[in-house]
Each structure stands twice: as C-alpha cells, then as structure tokens.
Design brief:
It is a single chain. The protein is mainly alpha-helical. It has one domain. It is 77% helix and 0% strand. The longest helix is centred in the C-terminal third of the chain and has 26 residues. The model has no long low-confidence stretch (mean pLDDT 90).
C-alpha cells in the first residue's frame, strides 16, 4: 500500500473558505442595514477585528477585513478609503494608548467601539472641513444605539 506523506489537510484553505463566507454574509448584512436603519453597520466590530488581525499578523484575515471595509464604505456612501485610513491611524496612535492605560477587557471593548464611531465621525468632519466637503448628517440616538448593540456583540463573540 502506498503512503502519501506529503498530503495533509491544510488549515489555510479552511480559513480561506470561512473568511469568504463571512465576507459574503457581511455584504448581505450591510445591504440589509442600509434598508433597516436599526441594524448597526458594524464599524466597531470591524475595528476590533482589524486590530486583532494586525496584532496576529494574519494577512488573509486582514485582506478580507479590508474588503469588508471597502464594501461598507461604498454601501453607506462614506468618503473613499476614509474608514480604512481612520482604522490605521487608530491602530497606530489611539489603541496602544488604550491598551497601555486600561487593563479591563470589557472596558477596552467598549472604548474600541466608542472610538470607532465617535472617532470616525470626528475624523470625517475634519476631512470635510479641510477639503470643503459636506459634513456627515448623523443622529446621536442612532449612534448611541449602534455603540450599545455593537459593544454587546464584541463582548459576546470576540
């Protein structure tokens, strides 16, 4: 009987398929959240996943998160690549400060989600002022609801 010593199951392929499925699910969810405004756009969840992918040097996960960010930006009408640039700036300057000062995991999760929304709104308004563009029109009740819902999602699943 012949043995195949070099034939093994590769976990990378399984991860690739699961990342594709999650990206397709996220795309459908973002389309639904454009119709139903009570569904949060998952900006905070994407920031947490983006930070984890960069910390673990998981380039495959990072690739699919960037695709999800681009899909979110196009579906919601955000400035092109503004969410991605904000996530990179937050990962470089804001998140290390939070990790250094706060040890409680649940508080860090809340601050990640809070910074994802409030920081992105401030960042977009700054970019709008610099390039003389129209500011975002936001409803603070929706943003508060999104922060609370996404905090529970991040706390439970991530």
């Amino acid at each position: 009987m012949q043995t195949f010593s070099n034939m093994q199951r590769n976990l990378t392929y399984q991860n690739f398929i699961s990342y594709i499925l999650w990206t397709l699910f996220f795309t459908g969810y973002i389309c639904l959240s454009s119709i139903y405004t009570l569904l949060p756009p998952m900006v905070g969840v994407l920031l947490v996943l983006f930070d984890k992918a960069l910390k673990k040097n998981n380039s495959l996960l990072l690739f699919f998160i960037v695709i999800s960010i681009i899909i979110l930006e196009t579906q919601k009408g955000f400035l092109a690549f503004s969410l991605l640039v904000f996530f990179l700036l937050a990962h470089k300057y804001i998140i290390p400060k939070i990790n250094q000062d706060i040890n409680a995991h649940k508080v860090r999760n809340f601050l990640y989600v809070f910074i994802a929304y409030i920081g992105y709104i401030a960042f977009t308004n700054l970019i709008s002022q610099i390039f003389i563009l129209e500011n975002l029109h936001i409803n603070i009740l929706y943003i508060t609801f999104y922060i609370i819902v996404e905090y529970f999602i991040v706390s439970i699943f991530l």
